[in-house]
Amino acid sequence: MQVYGSKELVEDVLNKDLCIGCGACVDLCPYFKTYKGKTAMIFPCTVQQGRCHAYCPKTESDLTELSMSLFGKPYDGSPMGHHEKILIARAGDKVHPAPFQAGGAVSALVTFAMKNGMVDAAVLTGRTGLIPYAELVTESESVARFTTSKYMAAPTLSAFNQGVKQGFQKIGVVGTPCQMTALAQMSINPLHTENFKDSVALKIGLFCTWALDTRKLAAYLSSRLDITGIKAMDIPPPPAEILVLDMGGKTIEIPLSEIRPLVPRTCLLCPDMTSEWADVSVGVLEGEPKFNTLIIRTRTGQDLVDKAVAQGFLTIREMPAVNLDHLSAAASNKKKRALAGAMEEGLLNTAENGKRAMMRIEKAVVERILA
Amino acid sequence: MSILTNGEPGKRYLLMGNEAIARGALEAGVSVCAGYPGTPSSEIIESLSKVAGNRNLYVEWSTNEKVSMEVAAAASFAGLRAMCPMKQNGVNVGSDFLLHLALSGTRGGMVIVPCDDPGALSSINEGESRQFARLLEVPLLEPGDFQEAKGITRWAFELSEELHSMVFVRSVTRLSHASGNVEFGELPQVNPKAGFKHDGFILDEMEGIITSAPVDYKHGLQHAKLKKAVERFENSPFNTYQGPEHPELILVTSSACNFYCREAIGLLDAGDRVGLLKLATTWPLPPKLIEKYLSMTDRFFVVEEVIPFTEENLKILAQEMAPRIGIKTIMGKRDGKLPMVGELNPDIVTQALAGLLGLEYKPQPDDYVQRSREIVTRAPNRELTFCPGCPHRASFWTINNVLKMDNRQGFVCGDIGCYTLSTLPTGFSASKTLHAMGSGTGVASGFGKLKQFGMDQPVLSVCGDSTFFASALPALFNAVHNQSDITMVLLDNSGTAMTGFQTHPGLKTGAMGQEVPAISIEAVCRSIGAKVKISDPFDIESTRNALFELLEENGVNVLILKQICTLSPEKKAKKKFEVRVMAEKCLGESCGCGRLCTRIFRCPGLIWNKDKGKAEINDVICIGCGVCGSICPNAAIEKKEVA
User: Fold this and answer.
1) Among partner residues A29, A43, A46, which is closest to B592 by beta-carbon distance?
2) Superfamily of domain B3-234
3) Closest to B405 (Cβ–Cβ): which among A29, A35, A50?
4) ipTM score over 0.90, yes or no
5) Chain B neighbors of A38, CB-CB under 8 A
6) Residue B27 and residue B188: Cα distance in Å, rounded?
7) d(CA A350, CA A360)
8) What are the pLDDT digits (tens) for B215-267?
């Protein structure tokens, strides 16, 4: 991947409205800041090659390079990315019950990884009122505060950057596909730093079809309800087509057609639904609201799941074939739409005419995906 | 003790133009002087305030120029001599009152002293107060040197009293702020008693009511006064001519341009070829005097700042006299011999005059531009900047950062004060509009009403504490009453800092050092229903949080950022923190910093050591505010509280 500086990051991402506000460029330096789901550069910087650009999942993401580095094989464009196993799972008996989303597998895995010493800190995403915020958590007891989905772009990785600054070397991160991409790019030492140490010990990826613009969603909901009263949010799997808000005692349903216009355009250009660069990816499961889908991608992921199951933190089962088909079809469709869109906008493999790309994928793979 | 009252009559003293004006007023027996601070006028009131007790004067810094005119006029109505100095745009501020005062007339001598700023050295305009004399139809005098600054001021009081009309004495920066020899006259031993007579015949100028109505009668009276003024002007000793009886050309000049003309004639050794008509009574021009000089030759060159004011007036008279004296060529600005904008100087005038006389004159050696370019590359790059430890730098740091992070294209409507610099990098270019005093909040009030047209950008205004009282209050009231959505950031540095810490209604001390009641800005804002937060701009975090909160609020918010000016007499030389850069922690130019403190924050107290690649503190000028300790991304700047 080609690394540039903040000037190019602003030109290619912020000015083109491609920034999702993942936080990868935040808290590395004094210039990139996050507020209410948006990232801004408050002053220009003169560094020619910066971590901000290198880590950003929307600049020069070379999927072949990432795949070779993480999985030792080229990127093949398969719908759910490289994986070892796909299972269904839910939190085991050892996990204190909490208001989990679906099966609570994410909370279970993070709690276990912390107790087990696999990670010494976890980067999680919380919510104050409606606004998501990132936090570096060092006590497994705190994990329960961060349960349930946010459905909004969150600057989660800013807490990761803070953790690195504070000297944590085994950090676990729970994040969306864009955030997993950023972490993958960090782990390949893109700036060829001497004595490079990858501080990411565990990447738990979340399934994500799109996120919502935080400020727009806040404005939309504020005009209809008291957003400080939102206890939890849920978008059940298809064909429900609703956003369900748990208002503590009562629920409010909002048709997805109403909030789709609040999806940032950058999400529609993202080819990754299942967090393909994670160690283990977690999502909902069609027809089984108290279970999660679990995709194990790396040895680290496999190791974590094995131990968590053995020690009662996680319960697993085989994935029914019909669910697998639906998941694959959904992931494949997102890929197709995203690549077609990126191509149309000239954001895919654009080096020939001197332009910088958002994403680089082998030509043959692109053709296969779009076929 | 001030030389202004201690100097001996008959002796000469080196005085600043503004001090000469003050001495002139003292010699005229002035009783009341009121004004609003503004460069280059401020020293007139400052020097009078120092001798107020001694001479039984009443001196005040008024809330704004219009009020100062009203205060001074009241003294005149009560039979006292009163003076009202201000910078050029002060006349604009009070012009509504002046338009009526011109008609209503005055009693005790009333002198308005506008000090113009050609070239806008300390202004953001180079407005011409002379134009106002013509607009208002009142007599205008322009001293041509320091002695005249005193003499003309003194005479202006007599003239005003004789005419029952205010009189303008116009100065400019190069007269007000330069110094020259002034021979003192006697100070009068008078103890005038004030009293307002108002129950005489309604149209009696000295005992009736004072008003501009009936307008046609009063306007007629005003023209009679102007006629009398012209009679006095015909014989004024302040209009002088120097030069041969039959010159090739006559330079016509006034004010500080008198110096440039004299220098130009000397440099060109043209004293036997050209004459210099230096006019002090520039409006209305005395026609007999003008006819006498217009008859002496055919070519005239008018040298004046800024607009071709005398040039035009002279051309009108020349046209009227043409049947008697023939057609004259009057050169100056309208034909491009002199620039229409900016300050003049001896070089410009000498070069233009040389051209008219067919002489060679090079103001600079041939390679001057080339050589100065070479030198400039070695000179350190200096830009306009806030002082080390200026609270405004900290305030605009937070304002900029909050607006950028907020990410809705929010902006600041700027205003007049040191913080005017916030349109520049030293204020992180946060202010995007800049006009007259108080206009920031007025313009913001307008922007804040544009939501119905789809404008969703946060609107901020900034305003200093003195500006708040001077002219932002009506704008703020407007915003509250009309339900505009704005956040006014009140940069309260406890004084009229830019012009030298003059007092204002928010402070406990008056112009003469007396104790006075201070008006609370916070209480005023709360009382009109604005949401008010107060923060110390040096506390970056709490200021940021306060501003973020206010940006979410509709309606009118006021954030008072209170921190006394670093240069204020109260604070001077007191360091709160000893500040040090820990070199081992300083990231310098690497990713993660990119020299934030010396490249962006740019407090002059921070220096970049190129050889070491580290930032350092310049202990000589650091005032120890400690703000740089809060902004360093690697906590490499240590601050220790000074015991």
Assistant:
1) A29
2) Thiamin diphosphate (ThDP)-binding fold, Pyr/PP domains (3.40.50.970)
3) A35
4) yes
5) 407
6) 6
7) 8
8) 999 999 999 999 999 999 999 999 999 999 999 999 999 999 999 999 999 99
